[in-house]
């Protein structure tokens, strides 16, 4: 195997492949990535067994062959070089040479590396990247980071009757994005790990090819092919959690609410940045208190409903507000213990639901 590439371009093209490779693995070969030089060009492949990335990379092929080499060493070497380099296999080593030097790396044979996917799973359709980006960005941040909560550790996607819905939840907050659209697929419901979806957001520019089967999901974006295992679990009934008739409604400019939350929550000592909303009559204010002190600030907005005192996570509210597209946000409440519904009047496709915090007296 022998090929030539520009070091900076090669490192940039390799980025998504190297990011998939774990720094530590039970099997040392998994800390490497596979290179295949053949008549069709150069292919790089990295995997952590759950997520895989294949990349077609421009290169001048002088001799065909394949091997797996250390992702960490290649990344460290290439970022310090900015010129044409040559990769050449000489017996049981890969030699990386350039104008003033060379490096020799150990290697693994191709048959020691996990097998490449032989075919793309299921039926393949083309998706609009604008739709995909909006669906993922509005919801994936709500996905649980706790691996023990398997069903909630991925983004739920269901499609049927011309409607696509993506749902992210960690059990305390939930983001839902629904859009009417026709996809040339049978109805489905799958749970996708967030790692591959974040790569889709990073790499996606034009339309994306998408496919799935019972165990894995596939996205093709230009020269990159992303494959991930699906999460094999049952997603909770998210529809039953969405409040249908919260009678108490606050309409307020999102920037006003964001500013007040950031100021008042500095006195909250916990990670959620707990604050209390006091609504009703002539009073609309947010307050927080701790051993550090206390803060209270009045709100300027429109509130209709009964008197209410409710604890909320300022951290969660601020995350939701960053996703609101319009100037106004609409927040509806039941009582102090019922789920809170957050709407974006400028985008009817998105809903957020969050559980109140029970504050200590």
Task: Describe the 3D structure.
With 361 residues, the protein is an alpha+beta fold. It folds into 3 domains: 2-112, DNA Polymerase III, subunit A, domain 2 (DNA Polymerase III, Chain A, domain 2, Roll); 125-238, DNA Polymerase III, Chain A, domain 2, CATH 3.10.150; 243-354, DNA Polymerase III, Chain A, domain 2 (Roll), CATH 3.10.150.10. Helices cover 17% and strands 42% of the residues. The protein contains 6 helices and 26 strands. It has helices spanning 7-20, 71-78, 129-137, 194-203, 254-264, 314-323, and strands at 2-6, 32-38, 41-47, 51-57, 60-63, 65-70, 84-90, 93-98, 101-106, 125-127, 155-160, 163-169, 173-180, 188-192, 208-212, 216-221, 224-229, 248-253, 274-280, 283-290, 293-298, 302-304, 308-313, 328-333, 340-343, 350-354. A 9-stranded antiparallel β-sheet has the order 14-11-12-13-26-25-24-18-22.
* CATH homologous superfamily (4th level) name of the largest domain: DNA Polymerase III, subunit A, domain 2
What distance lies between the first and last C-alpha atoms, to the nearest angstrom?
71 Å
Q: What would you call the shape?
A: elongated
The percentage helix is 10-25%
Task: Briefly note the structural class of the backbone.
Answer: alpha+beta
Whole-number average pLDDT? Answer: 92
- Class of the largest domain in CATH? Alpha Beta
Question: Approximately how much beta-strand content do the residues carry?
Answer: 35-45%
Question: What CATH architecture label of the largest domain applies?
Answer: Roll
Subcellular location: Cytoplasm
Protein name: Beta sliding clamp
Subunit structure: Forms a ring-shaped head-to-tail homodimer around DNA.
Domain DNA polymerase III beta sliding clamp C-terminal: 239-357
């Amino acid at each position: 195997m022998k090929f030539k590439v520009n070091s900076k371009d090669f490192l940039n093209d390799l980025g998504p492949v190297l990011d998939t490779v774990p720094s530590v693995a039970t099997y040392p070969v998994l800390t490497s990535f596979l290179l295949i030089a053949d008549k069709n060009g150069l292919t790089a492949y990295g995997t952590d067994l759950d997520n895989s990335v294949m990349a077609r990379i421009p290169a001048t092929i002088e001799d065909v062959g394949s091997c797996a080499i250390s992702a960490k060493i290649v990344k460290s070497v290439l970022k310090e070089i900015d010129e044409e380099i040559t990769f050449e296999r000489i017996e049981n080593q890969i030699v990386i040479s350039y104008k003033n030097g060379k490096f020799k790396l150990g290697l693994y044979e191709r048959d020691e590396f996990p097998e490449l996917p032989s075919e793309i799973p299921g039926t393949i359709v083309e998706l609009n990247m604008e739709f995909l980006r909006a669906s993922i960005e509005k919801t994936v941040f709500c996905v649980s980071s706790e691996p023990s909560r398997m069903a909630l550790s991925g983004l739920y996607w269901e499609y049927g009757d011309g409607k696509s819905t993506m749902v992210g939840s960690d059990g305390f907050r939930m983001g839902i994005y629904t859009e009417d659209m026709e996809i040339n697929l049978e109805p489905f419901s799958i749970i996708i790990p967030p790692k591959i979806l974040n790569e889709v957001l990073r790499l996606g520019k034009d339309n994306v090819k998408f496919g799935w089967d019972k165990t894995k999901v596939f996205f093709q974006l230009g020269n990159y092919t992303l494959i991930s295992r699906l999460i094999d679990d049952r997603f909770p009934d998210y529809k039953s959690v969405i409040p249908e008739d919260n009678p108490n409604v606050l309409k307020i400019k999102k920037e006003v609410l964001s500013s007040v939350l950031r100021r008042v929550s500095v006195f909250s000592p916990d990670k959620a940045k707990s604050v209390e909303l006091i609504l009703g009559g002539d009073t609309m204010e947010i307050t927080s208190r701790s051993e550090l002190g206390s803060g209270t600030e009045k709100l300027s907005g429109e509130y209709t409903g009964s008197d209410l005192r409710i604890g909320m996570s300022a951290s969660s509210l601020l995350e939701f507000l960053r996703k609101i597209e319009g100037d106004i946000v609409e927040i509806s409440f039941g009582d102090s213990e019922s789920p809170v519904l957050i709407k974006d009047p400028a985008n009817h496709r998105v809903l957020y639901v969050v559980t109140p915090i029970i504050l200590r007296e």
